[in-house]
Write a structure and sequence with these properties.
By secondary structure, the chain is α/β, with parallel strands linked by helices. Helices cover 29% and strands 22% of the residues. Helix 6 packs parallel to helix 7 and helix 7 runs parallel beside helix 9.
């Protein structure tokens, strides 16, 4: 493992906090100082004009292996993560086989050990085969997973969720809940709002999300289970979570960069605008932005969900649900949330790196003694999103053609250079 010295890295895009040198050895940060002399046999990296940030953490991605490698592989998905500044990712369990037993989980872990470019900590399922019925052996799976989730579908039966929360509470792990009431979906596929009505589409009502959030908060309060609510998209969801936090419920949540940047007024007749949950109304987007600013929303996670080009080419009604985000997330949040003054730069780093590490107990961070997970970013560089340039096999994103600010140029994971786009 090489010794790396990063020279003259900015501590913030403004440059007001000055610059530092960072010495990395043995996979850890061993010194941060205004000036460090270069040791022998050292790889020196000039970061002049670049901002150093802690490696980002995405607690909600879909890497599609095992079972769906025509959409994405762990190799391509983690390469995309490194290019986006992520050093830890947590793949969801809608796989084949689903990681609902140590044996099935081992099939995924074997691929991770062989192919992952960055730290990859999977979720196990909440229920057998993600059917929302029989609980899995939580204790047996706990040492190997970030938490438990049936993401892709909500656990519909209240008693099944209560039993799951009771079991997961004993492990201390997080239950990451996809909250969706199936009976309220009514075959919808975009938000039940103005765009759907104007263009003759079937809508998904907001209640399908917040109604199950309301139930799961109540069950978390009852059982003491650590509840993390995935990809919230509605104003009501923000209000419910804010209220629960105020009364001391152990609940956290995430939203995606696309929900902070777009609403259903931005929709087009194209599968790259189709994801679950859908882009909601402007009032929902504004509530999410406010929730990110006031701390109600803890984490920004991409819900990176790659599909084949064919699966995303069938318009809003028939295209598969899901868009990719690993390679544009940081720039999207910086452009739409930091540059506009909605949140500070430090708050962005909190939501994308510090908070997920703290909540899930992951290593890394930008301080001496921590595992060396860091990225160098040019926050002055503007670029236009061109999915053809993505390392991910998935190319479908509502950010296609959008001008963003902020480009990751180098990523180091556990002291190893995993992405290098610095000009030679």
């Amino acid at each position: 493992m090489k010794t790396i010295l990063i020279k003259k890295a900015l501590l913030s895009p403004s440059g007001k906090e000055g610059t530092v040198d960072i010495l990395i050895s043995g996979g850890k940060i061993v010194e941060i100082a205004p000036h460090i002399d270069s040791p022998q046999d050292c790889c020196e990296i000039c970061a002049d004009g670049l901002t150093v940030i802690p490696g980002l953490v995405d607690v909600h991605v879909h890497l599609r292996e095992p079972g769906f490698s025509y959409k994405e592989t762990i190799a391509t998905g983690t390469a995309a993560a490194a290019a986006g500044g992520f050093t830890t990712v947590c793949p969801m369990p809608n796989l084949n086989p689903a990681p609902d037993s140590p044996e099935n989980l081992e099939r995924q872990l074997e691929i991770i050990r062989k192919d992952a470019k960055v730290e990859t900590i999977p979720y196990a399922t909440i229920t057998r085969s993600r059917l929302g019925e029989e609980p899995v052996d939580y204790a047996a799976l706990t040492p190997f997973v970030a938490g438990f989730s049936d993401d892709g579908s909500g656990v519909q039966d209240e008693e099944a969720m209560r039993i799951a929360m009771q079991g997961i509470a004993k492990t201390g792990k997080i239950l990451a809940a996809h909250c969706e009431v199936n009976s309220l979906l009514r075959k919808g596929y975009i938000h039940d709002g103005e765009y759907a009505r104007a263009h003759g589409h079937r809508g998904i009502c907001s209640e399908s999300e917040w109604r199950e959030i309301e139930r799961d908060i109540r069950l978390s309060e009852e059982t003491g289970c650590r509840l993390h609510i995935c990809h919230i998209s509605t104003a009501e969801s923000v209000d419910l979570i804010r209220s629960a936090k105020e009364r001391g419920v152990n609940v956290t949540c995430e939203t995606g960069p696309h929900y902070l940047a777009f609403c259903d007024e931005d929709m087009q007749e194209n599968g790259r605008f189709k994801m679950n949950p859908p882009l909601r109304a402007r009032r929902d987007m504004e509530a999410l932005r406010a929730g990110a600013a006031d701390g109600t929303i803890d984490v920004i996670a991409t819900d990176h969900a790659p599909h084949s080009a064919e699966e995303k080419s069938k318009g809003l009604e028939k295209s598969a649900m899901g868009v990719v985000g690993l390679e544009i997330s940081l720039a999207a949040v910086y452009t739409y949330m930091v540059k506009t003054g909605i949140i500070s730069f430090d708050r962005m780093i909190e939501m994308m790196a510090t908070a997920p590490r703290r909540l899930f107990g992951f290593a890394g961070g930008l301080s001496v003694g921590n595992r060396a997970d860091i990225s160098l970013v040019d926050f002055n560089r503007e670029w236009i999103v061109n999915p053809a340039d993505f390392l991910s096999m998935g190319k479908s994103t509502p950010f296609e053609g959008v001008r963003l600010t902020g480009k990751v140029l180098l990523t180091i994971a556990a002291g190893t250079l995993v992405y290098d786009n610095l000009e030679k």
